[in-house]
Each structure stands twice: as C-alpha cells, then as structure tokens.
Design brief:
Elements lengths: L3 H35 L9 H10 L10 H26 L91 H11 L7 H15 L5 H11 L7 H15 L5 H11 L7 H45 L7 H7 L13 E5 L11 E4 L9 E3 L4
Antiparallel strand pairs: 1-2, 1-3
C-alpha cells in the first residue's frame, strides 16, 4: 500500500506531464499557423506530408528557441508543485495514527518502520504474527505448519513433540522422566505399593520415605539427623546411631585432652561428677587429692607422735610419783596416792587433769583441777599422784 505522500507525488507528476503536453501542443499549433501564414507557397489543400516536408525545408528544427519561454513557465509550475509537495510532506510526516506511525510508516518512538514491540504499521512482526496471534499468511491462529504464535499445535505439542510442561504424549520429558520424576511407570507403581498410598508418589517423595525408613532402622529419630551424622563423620555410608554416639564420645575425649573414652570415663568416675571432665580438671583433681592425703597423713603422724610423747610423759610422771614418800595419814593418804577410776574422780580429793600431749612438767596453761566426783574433760588425762 502506497503512502499518502507517494500518492501525492504521483498525482503531481501526472498533472505536470499533462500540462507540459498541452503547452507543447498549443505552441506547436501556433507556430505551424505562423509558418503557414507567412509561407505563400503552402495552402490549405496540401497534404500532411507536404506540410512536413515544408517544415524541414524551412529548417524548423533549428528554430525551436520559441519553446524556451513556455518551458520556463512549465518549470515554474513544477517548482510550485514541488513546494506544495514539500509542505504536504512536512505536515504528513508529523501526523501519526493510533499505532504511532506516520504516513511514511515511521514510528514516532523508535524512528524506524517498526515499533517498540517489533510490529510494523500493518500490525505484523518479522515472524508474520500480529498482537492477537493471527498469522499473516494463513489468517488464522496457526501458521502453514500448524503451530501457533507460541510454537504449539492444536494438541498442545511443539515441533519436538513436547507440551508446555515439557512432557511428550506418553508423559515423559526430555530427560526420560515422567511428571512424577520416574524413569518408568512400573517403578512408580512398585513404590506406591510399598508406601501403601493411593496416589502416585514422586521420586523425591519415595526417596525421602526410604531415608526415613533407614534412619528408623539405624536408631535415628529422623533422616535429617542421620544425614547430619554422616556428614559430620565424613563417611560414605549412613552410620548407625551407636556408631555415631561412639564417634561423638571419641571426639569429646580427644577434645578434652584424654587418650581414650575409657580414660575419660575413669576420670569422671573417680571425680564423682555427672559431666565428663577435661584432662586438666582431672589432673587438678588428682593433685588436690594428693595434697589433701599428704596433709592428712602428716596430721595423723603428728597425732601419733604426740600420743606417744604423752604416753611417755605420763609413764615418767607415774614413776616419779611412785618414788616419792608419802606419810601414812589414813584415808587421806590413801586418797592422795590412789588414781581416779575411769572418767570420774573417785579418789575423794581434787585431782589434776592434763591436756593430752602435755605432762606434769609442761602442764602450765593445759591443765584443770577436778573436784571429787567430777568428770575427766575430753582430750585430757589424769596425772597420777597429783
């Protein structure tokens, strides 16, 4: 379809040609009349051939300068038409239709003969489709090969035989998997039966089912815990819960500085704690225990030595008392030389009680006077003869 400007140019050309022909014919008629009128040898009864020969004889071709003025007028007319055409061009080129194209098919946004979406003035793109999905050649929603603008046929399959979800007529995609992710329907049906469900399971659902089942058999609370254990242990196969627990204990023992789990358990038992100790904690415990035992042994040894010294002093004191001469004063004399009985002063006179570890000679500040019938204080002994 020609643009408005092209139509105007063609009409202008036709008018110019028509005007030129009319002007030339008029000039020729006038000139012929002038030649004939001035030439007495030619009359109205002569034939056309005679007229032509007469014009040649009078050198008609060499006297065509008479055409200059008419042609100049024609040129002026042509220039006027071109000016008019230019003005029309300017007006038309700045006028756009609803689609944004001017009369020359140029789009006001792109400045080309195609819009932002790739459509021409006639509404079709390079592939021959319009915005409504109509194909230019067939006038329908399908091209010559039977495919729509999206590349699918009436059954919803593309040229490779796959639908919009990527599956062929048998329900398998390009990777050979059906829409549930299985390579074969038979495997899918077997999985469905094993799981005891009514709907077809996806391959991933079945894989998760198997993982959960294996996790339960291996003592884990979930497949997630089993997978985490495998990753942490850095092994290729899924471990049992028992293997994982042993791995954690070995790791804990190593982290806490022990050579083995057994050594850590022994340290925990020796310390009598609920949480596994570190090697340093155990070593500090052992050192503190040894210190306490050494202090206890030293205290016991000192007590033994003090007891022996006290016994020796008591023995010496008794010997000294026995060697003294005491007057016979009856009951009083008997009471003075007799020793108290057990923990009670039964001598009838006041007697001295000396703190253990001290004797009569070192008793100062470490002795008490016990009246008859009084009890021996704890940690004290009787001084025989005093």
């Amino acid at each position: 379809m020609k643009s408005m400007f092209e139509q105007m140019i063609e009409k202008g050309k036709e008018k110019i040609v028509q005007a030129s022909e009319e002007a030339v014919n008029k000039i020729q008629d006038q000139h012929f009349n002038k030649v004939i009128k001035n030439d007495k040898t030619f009359d109205d009864d002569d034939s056309v051939d005679d007229l032509v020969n007469h014009l040649k004889k009078n050198n008609f071709r060499k006297n065509q300068t008479f055409l200059a003025k008419p042609i100049g007028k024609i040129a002026i007319s042509l220039t006027g038409l071109l000016v008019i055409a230019f003005i029309a061009f300017c007006v038309v080129s700045n006028s756009y239709d609803a689609a944004g194209f001017n009369a020359f098919g140029v789009h006001k946004v792109t400045g080309k003969n195609i819009d932002e979406d790739g459509y021409y003035r006639d509404g079709f793109n390079n592939d021959g489709w319009n915005r409504d999905g109509i194909y230019k050649t067939t006038g329908t929603k399908y091209d010559e090969n039977g495919f729509d603008i999206s590349g699918y046929d009436k059954n919803g399959f593309d040229k490779d035989g796959y639908d919009k979800k990527g599956y062929d007529k048998n329900g398998f995609n390009k990777k050979g998997l059906n829409k549930w992710g299985w390579e074969s329907d038979a495997d899918m049906k077997a999985a469905k039966a094993e799981m005891g469900i009514s709907e077809n399971p996806t391959k991933s659902t079945y894989d998760n089912y198997l993982l959960d089942k294996e996790a339960t058999e291996k003592g884990f609370s979930s497949s997630t815990a089993m997978i985490a254990a495998k990753v942490e242990m850095g092994v290729s196969d899924y471990p049992t819960k028992e293997e994982y627990d042993k791995f954690l204990l070995d790791k804990e023992a190593k982290d806490k500085g022990f050579a083995s789990v057994q050594e850590m358990d022994e340290a925990k038992s020796a310390m009598g704690v609920d949480v596994n100790p570190t090697k340093k904690e155990y070593d500090d415990y052992v050192a503190e225990k040894a210190k306490q035992e050494a202090e206890a042994a030293a205290a016991a040894e000192k007590a033994r030595q003090d007891a022996e010294a006290a016994a020796a002093a008591q023995k010496a004191s008794a010997a000294s008392a026995a060697s003294k001469t005491v007057p016979n004063t009856g009951a009083s004399s008997s009471a003075a030389t007799s020793a108290p009985s057990g923990e009670t002063n039964t001598t009838g006179i006041a007697r001295w009680a000396v703190e253990n570890g001290y004797n009569w000679q070192t008793r100062k500040g470490h002795c008490k006077r016990i009246a008859p019938g009084g009890s021996l204080p704890a940690g004290y002994h009787w001084e025989v003869g005093n």
